[in-house]
Design a protein that fits this description.
81 residues; alpha+beta; Uncharacterised_YueH; YueH family protein
């Protein structure tokens, strides 16, 4: 499991993420939020799924921003950065 800190809404939040053979698991304890996603999702599908799930907790703008940041984080991790 990896932990990355992201700047969000004026505070630092930790994004816990784990990659298995076929799943990506994400958790943000500060938001009491977690999700399991298929590794088969491309970047756009991943982003859309995150926006839909985060929109249950956040405003549309906040969900969009955080989903974009998490998608970038996962894309960079998969590239080995």
């Amino acid at each position: 499991m990896r932990i990355k800190s992201l700047q969000f809404h004026g505070m630092m939040i930790n994004v816990y993420h784990y990659h298995s053979n076929d799943l990506i698991m994400l958790a943000i304890p500060e938001l009491f939020w977690s999700i399991e996603l298929s590794k088969e999702l491309d970047a756009n599908q991943l982003y859309e799924e995150l926006v839909m799930q985060l929109f249950n907790l956040l405003t549309e703008v906040e969900a969009d921003t955080l989903a974009s940041n998490i998608t970038d984080l996962i894309r960079n991790e998969s590239k080995g950065e």
